[in-house]
Every structure is written in C-alpha cells, then in structure tokens.
Amino acid sequence: MKLLSPLKIGPIEVKNRVVSTAHSAFTDFFQPGATGERYMAYQERRAEGGCGLIILTAMHVHHTSQIPTHYVYEERDIAGKFQQISERLHRHGAKVISQLFHFGVQFKSDARDDLSPLWGFSGTASLEGEASHEMTDAEIEEVIDAFAKTASIAVKNGIDGVELHGAHGYLIQQSFSPFANRRTDRWGEYLYFAKTLAKRVRAAIGPDKVMGFRISIDDFLRPQDGGVGHEQLCQIAADMMATGLFDYLNHSEGKGGADYARAVGSYRHPMGEWLPLTRSLRQAVGGEVPLIGVGKIVTADHAEQALQAGDCDLVGMTRAQISDPDLVRKVMTGQQHRIRVCTGANQGCIDRTSTLPITCIHNPEVGEENRFKALDIPIAKSKKVLVIGGGPAGMKAAEIAARRGHDVTLADAGNRLGGRLNLLEKVGDASNLLAAISWVEQELSILKVKVLPQTLVDEAFVRVFKPDAIVVATGARPSIELDVENDASIPVISSDDAVQGLFDGNKFDMKGTRALLVDRRANYETALVVEALVRQGSRVTVITPFMHFGVNIGFTHLTDYLRLLPEWKVEVHATTALQRIEGGQVCFRNGFSGAETLAEFDFIVAGVHAKPRNELVQRLSALAPTKTAGDVVAPRSALEAFREGDRCGRTV
C-alpha cells in the first residue's frame, strides 16, 4: 500500500505518506508563559497513532501579526516547547515541521497590545474593512528577518524544518497578488518578496533541514478584482520550486475569509474536491519536489487512490486524524473498517477556531488527551451498567463503558439507534452525520453490548434488572410552545414534524405551502429545519430575535447558508419577534423599529428548544448510582451529547 510506504523529503525520510497539515488548534502553545501541554498532548496522540508528518499550527513571526487567541512567541519560552514537542513526536517516529506566517492585511488590529496597525504592501483594506499601513522598505526587511529568525529558532530546537505559508490570503500570498500588492518599487516585482524571503530562510536553517511552501491553487477571485487564478498560481508554484530552495510543496485554496468554507468544506462539499487542481499543480511543477494533496480526504482508500493516480506524493488527512488519531495504525493492523471517519460536520473543528479550542463532533478525546488518559485506568471490578436511551449520548456512554470492561446493556424505546439524529435522513447532505451513529453502532456490536430496542424502561424494569450503575440518556421531546396569543387559526408544528412532513402524526404534502419558522435557537438544528422545508417544496419565511440568521452556527456553515438562503428564496426577518396568531394571520414585530407586519401562512414551525425527558432521573437515582447525558441534561447538539455520553462511560 503506497499510503504506508516511506518517502524522502529533502534531507529527511517520512515513514508513510499521511500528513497532518497545519491547522488552528490550541494556539496558546505560543503564548509566553503557557505550558502548551494541551497542544503537545494533542499532537503526540496523532504521532502515536502513526501519522508520518505533522505540520504544526501556523506560527506568527512578528508582532504585527496578531489577533485574539493568536500569540507572538517569546524566544526562550518557545525554544523549550519546541524541544519538548519535537522529542515527543519523534519518539513515535513522526517528523515535525513548523509552519511560519504573517497575517499581513488580514483581520483587525484592535487586539494588539499596542494597537499597531495592519502591515501590508500597498495600504489596502482588509476583508474586515480596516485600513492598513503600507510597509516601508525597512519594515519589509524587518518582517523577512523575523521569518528567518523564527525559522532558525525552530530548527535549533529539534524541529525538522519549516513551511512558508503562502496561502489563505496572508502576507506571502498578498505579495504576489494584485489585490494586495500594487507597489512600483522592487517589492512589487514578480515574486521578488517571496524569493527573497525563501533565500533568507533557507540560509537561516541550512541545507540539512526541510523547507516547504504552501500555496493556494485557486484564489477564487476574478482578475478584475485583483485575483491571480489557478493557472497563474500553478506557475508561481513552479517558479518557486525552480529556485531549488524547497523540499516539498503543499497547497490549500482561497484567500481567507469566507473562502475557508470552501477550502475546509463541510459535508455539503464533495470528498477530494480539490484533487483535480492538485493534479494540475503537480503537472505544472513537473515532479520537482514531493507534493501534498489536500481537500477533505477522509478515508484511507481515497488517499490511496490519489497516490496511485499520481495526483500527489503525500496526503493531507488532517480532519480525518482529528476524528480518528489511530487512522494509520488501524490501516497497518487490518482494522481499516474500524476507522472513525470524519463526517465533515466542521462544528467541532474549524468552526470553533476563531475563538475556541477545537474538539470533534464524535471524538470527544480531542483536546482532552491527558484527562482521558487519566480516566483510562483499569477498572477494579466490572459493573452491570444499564444505559437508557439510544441516541448519541446513550450510544457513546455504552461504547465507552463497554470498552473499559463493564457489562453493558443499552435499552431504547425506538426500533433503531440514533435518536433524533436519524431525522437527518430527510435533510440531504447533512445525512453524512449519521456516519457517526453507524460507527458507534458497529463498535457496540464488536464490544458485545446488549441492545434492547423497543424497550420502555421504568422503575419496575430497573428493579428486576438490578444494575450496578445507570446512565439516563432519554433525550428530549419536541415542543410547540410559542408563548404568544394564539387563536389556533394556523397550525403550529414542531421542528421534528416539519423535517418529517407530519401534522398530527400524518404525512402531508408541503409543496407550494407557505411556512413560517419562528427561530429562537439560531443554531444548526434550526438551519437544518429550513433546509428540510425547502427540500419538501415549502416557501419559507424565518423570523428570529437575533441580529442575523444563524448567529449560533459556525462560520463555514453560516457562509454556506448565506449563499443558499437566497437560492432557496428564503425570506429572513432578523431582530424580529412573534406577537400573536389571530384570524389566520401572524403578527410579528421588529425589535428596533417597532414596526409590525401581518402575513398569512399555511403553517408555523416552532423553532424552540425541546423539553428534557427527565422524569425517570430522580426515581432511578434511588435504585442505583445514576448519571445523565445528552438532551436530558439540556437540549443541545450531538456534539455535546457524544461528549457527555463519553464522560459518563469513563466515570461510571
């Protein structure tokens, strides 16, 4: 299998072709004074699982590249951390690269300690609308020196090499893009900055360390707007590789901002979406150096196909290894069918990166590696565990408890596992999330968990069963409570019924109907209800008290929805609340202007939170030690449900 074969990258050899590319995770690793332990444990877990090459979170080289949760290193502090992380990753046979970058004219400057402005080549405005400072000749030299110094610090402290980040619209990409560089001096010449930078960094690290380059292979920008385009970007990559300074080439897509929703596509985007562009990039470079292919490559088979087809020489499987850090190990040991495949949810990883530490919708271990290891101590005695409820929380609790050696029975009132997540079968691409359910169900079978479908659990059942421990994961029941004057002249249905096309338990044809969704959650669930209504042919209006649609949705999904809602002809009224339902009309009011609108609809969907099914909890607690997980605790999403179930399974 080519995926598992070694490869020379300049002066080093990687043991396999699997790469974890740089991604924003636990950026406090670079914060002076912080231990960085959480990040080191996270990356070591991927190395332990067999990853061949790990490229660390992008490292800011200069104080003029800083935003909230991103830190500029202090030399003595980062030297010790680099020594530690390189030793820990090397211990497992992984090679480690530090990615270096500067934001340039990206984001905003208001988080900087001294409120220094954005630095760029031509005083252009950022995507956020902030003006920038046009760097002087001396300031450009200062930034180049900072790259070289940072590279030197990395390789002197155990890191195998560095990668220059020339993608995502950051400073290096800005240097060769008309939208950001309109200079007429030497720094405006074709690739002058990029090549000068590369020469300086290579001189700083020497010939026995690796230097790579990352480029966007499409900037998604029209030439009249200052874009370069795929073909020219391929030529830029070829010209950079022709310098002989680089040992490998990596790529991504876009110029930052909303483009991340395409570069790191959710389940709405096809797997391997960018491999055709990877192939043409490889042709342009002519095999000069090894090429890393990226773009939602989440299965070992898909990665192997890309390698065998000659699209690339290594495969970026970053989200795949967030989802399952043992991906390589499982391939090596014939356990490929047990790989926990990334669903493309994005909710736990990239959609949290701007302000929050990452996690994973169905791998709660992410970011908790040390805490979970502490909990994974051998159990003193196997317990008879009863898990009540077969949704994500209950399934995960049963899996983890069984994995730890307990005798587990899972009882569910329904005829299939998955709970309310099964409703996603009706919502197109989002049904990919059901892969998380399928994987746990498979593990329950392998772990010999006894599953009792169509089983109602009450006190009598538990008294007969006599468990040593109970996990209640009974979920929540949908609600239609709108708490407004309502003469019942317009039917009101729950989100669950809307997705299924049900009214009073009966199927009805939504085609051509007018639906009002009263959105008081602004989260993933509400957005998926909109999608389900549209798919069933309803014309949808959304009213929400929040500032805009989807304020509680991650930015990659929100970007998709802001594109899709106009296509679906969905009408959104933000900062708007429902007032009353009367005489076949709905009255809603704008919270700022006070203006009221009367409109007619065929039905109303109550986009409100469900009600926990918690009636059993207190009564069962008197019979055996009882824990709760999922919507029975507080109705939220599958991400929280899986995590709470995991926690119960580890501590039962």
Automatic annotation (TrEMBL):
<keyword id="KW-0408">Iron</keyword>
<comment type="similarity">
    <text>In the N-terminal section; belongs to the NADH:flavin oxidoreductase/NADH oxidase family.</text>
</comment>
<dbReference type="InterPro" id="IPR051793">
    <property type="entry name" value="NADH:flavin_oxidoreductase"/>
</dbReference>
<keyword id="KW-0560">Oxidoreductase</keyword>
<feature type="domain" description="FAD/NAD(P)-binding">
    <location>
        <begin position="383"/>
        <end position="480"/>
    </location>
</feature>
<dbReference type="InterPro" id="IPR001155">
    <property type="entry name" value="OxRdtase_FMN_N"/>
</dbReference>
<dbReference type="InterPro" id="IPR036188">
    <property type="entry name" value="FAD/NAD-bd_sf"/>
</dbReference>
<dbReference type="Pfam" id="PF07992">
    <property type="entry name" value="Pyr_redox_2"/>
</dbReference>
<keyword id="KW-0479">Metal-binding</keyword>
<keyword id="KW-0285">Flavoprotein</keyword>
<keyword id="KW-0288">FMN</keyword>
<feature type="domain" description="NADH:flavin oxidoreductase/NADH oxidase N-terminal">
    <location>
        <begin position="2"/>
        <end position="335"/>
    </location>
</feature>
<dbReference type="Pfam" id="PF00724">
    <property type="entry name" value="Oxidored_FMN"/>
</dbReference>
<dbReference type="InterPro" id="IPR013785">
    <property type="entry name" value="Aldolase_TIM"/>
</dbReference>
<protein>
    <submittedName>
        <fullName>NAD(P)-binding protein</fullName>
    </submittedName>
</protein>
<keyword id="KW-0411">Iron-sulfur</keyword>
<dbReference type="InterPro" id="IPR023753">
    <property type="entry name" value="FAD/NAD-binding_dom"/>
</dbReference>
